[in-house]
Design brief:
It is globular, with a radius of gyration of 21 Å. The protein has 443 residues and is of the alpha/beta class. Helix 8 runs parallel beside helix 9 and helix 12 packs parallel to helix 14. The chain has two domains: 169 residues, Aspartate Aminotransferase, domain 1 (Alpha-Beta Complex), CATH 3.90.1150; 263 residues, Aspartate Aminotransferase, domain 2, CATH 3.40.640.10. The strands form three sheets. It has a seven-stranded mixed sheet, sandwiched between helices. A four-stranded mixed sheet has the order 1-2-3-13. It has a four-stranded antiparallel sheet with strand order 11-12-15-14. The chain contains 15 helices and 15 strands. A hairpin with a 2-residue loop joins strand 1 and strand 2.
Length: 443
């Protein structure tokens, strides 16, 4: 008799971000390419790359073989010993990064990568305050959950890490200053400069910013924003940490999303697409000036799994895959496909307030008042019982074989960057039909 794995998981696994009694488990038995299959043999298109992470899909044999080859060499060597595969990956990261970078600290995920970046910035500046933004997510650990701006931070996770502050967002659709670009003169960036001055410029160690906000709504800053951020950081000797955990490795049509602007951060953090999630790996890539500082100053940080050889093998194979199979270029080709079809959908549905994105990652923000643009769901509803309006749209799409995630009022559409134009259009047709649900709730 076959085991009831759904009940087993419900009984014994603590699920993320959920009251356990309300958890419903659907076991997945197989996944390949841009699709996965549940235990009932129903097939789904993976239209959010799981958690915007399986960037080149499932069961890639080249990456699988790289992991097996390293496993057959050795599975683990302590961080204090050298591992050729670790060295190769670290060197490769300096070659693909958009600027002058040298040293990488490897960890097991994005939250740890951000923690490592904040520690490096604090040591380098001898300051202690860190500024992130209100519409952001940076991880669920001590420092990273404090950096996070969304409700996961203040829902029983506070008081958090001392010295963490939050700034306004470059959120043009809902400008915090009720202005429009370019007449605003990038007031959202200037407000960060004012905040540094008000806090005491010698007390601020770092800015931690997603280049394009990911799970909190795919917020794309306007032209010139990061060039101005670079100038502000240089003015006050503040370390700019670019959180590419969700944004990196082709997701927005560039190897790193920050390449859409002419500005280089001091530290780049990454995970997710670095290995396509085949093995957990995070990385904190430091610029020349930060790396130079630690030549004679101790980097007081470490972990048992830092630079795990199997993970590094997956990372190196993944980058090779992006380059040799021109996956970044495919994401670029899909950008106008998403843009055109989503804007058609916006015209046809009064509940669609805004569509935005780049490459192969787009957000569809839902509203329930077409005149006031009142959001279809709010932060206060994030952990409320029962599905929100966007949640109901998501469930309808899932019922029809399209899986994606949603956050507060935004649908997050981000299939693996291996998909075809036809697959993108097929998925968007399902979304188009499901939006009739939100239209019924919109005035």
């Amino acid at each position: 008799m076959e085991e009831d794995y759904a009940q087993m998981e419900k009984n014994y696994v603590m699920r993320t971000w959920a009251a356990q009694r309300n958890v419903k488990v659907l076991p997945i038995k197989d996944a390949e390419g841009a699709y996965f299959t549940d235990i009932n043999d129903k097939k789904y298109m993976d239209f959010s790359s799981q958690l915007i992470a399986a960037n080149y899909g499932h069961k890639n044999q080249k990456v699988n073989q790289a992991i097996i080859d390293q496993l057959n060499t050795y599975s683990y060597i302590a961080p204090g010993l050298g591992a050729p595969i670790r060295a190769k990956l670290a060197k490769k990261l300096t070659e693909i990064a958009p600027g002058n970078y040298r040293k990488t600290f490897f960890s097991t995920g994005g939250a740890e990568a951000n923690e490592g970046g904040v520690k490096a910035a604090k040591y380098y500046t001898n300051a202690f305050k860190v500024i992130s933004r209100y519409t952001s997510y940076h991880g669920a650990l001590g420092i990273s959950i404090s950096l996070t701006g969304d409700p996961r931070r203040y829902t029983k996770n506070e008081p958090g890490y001392p010295g963490v502050l939050h700034a306004v967002d470059p959120y043009c659709y809902r400008c915090p200053f009720k202005m429009t670009y370019p007449e605003c003169n990038l007031l959202c960036a200037e407000a960060i400069r004012d905040q540094i001055l008000m806090e005491g410029k010698d007390t601020v160690a770092a800015l931690v910013l997603e280049p394009i906000v990911g799970s909190n709504g795919v917020i794309v800053p306007p032209p010139g924003y990061y060039e101005r951020i670079r100038e502000i950081c240089d003015e006050f000797d503040v370390v700019w940490i670019d959180d590419e955990v969700m944004a990196g490795f082709g997701r927005f049509g560039k190897m790193f999303a920050i390449e859409h602007w002419d500005a280089s951060p001091d530290i780049i953090t990454m995970a997710k697409g670095l290995t396509g999630t085949y093995v957990p790996l995070g990385a904190t890539l430091m610029s020349d000036k930060i790396s130079d500082f630690f030549e004679d100053n101790i980097y007081v940080h470490g972990a048992t799994y830092a630079g795990h050889p199997l993970a590094c093998a997956a990372g190196l194979a993944s980058i090779k895959l992006y380059e040799e199979e021109k996956l970044i270029e495919n994401a670029q080709k899909l950008e106008p496909v998403f843009e055109k079809r989503l804007n058609e959908i916006k015209e046809d549905h009064k509940s669609v307030g805004d569509v935005r994105g780049k490459g192969c990652f787009w957000g569809v923000e839902l509203i329930k008042d077409s005149k006031t643009h009142e959001p279809a769901s709010t932060r206060d509803e994030k952990f409320a019982p029962g599905p929100t309006i966007p949640g109901r749209v998501q469930q309808e799409c899932f019922k029809n074989g399209i899986f994606f995630v949603q956050m507060i009022s935004t649908l997050l559409l981000a299939p693996p960057i291996i998909v075809s134009k036809e697959e993108v259009l097929k998925g968007l047709d399902v979304v188009d039909e499901a939006l009739k649900i939100s239209d019924k709730e919109c005035k």
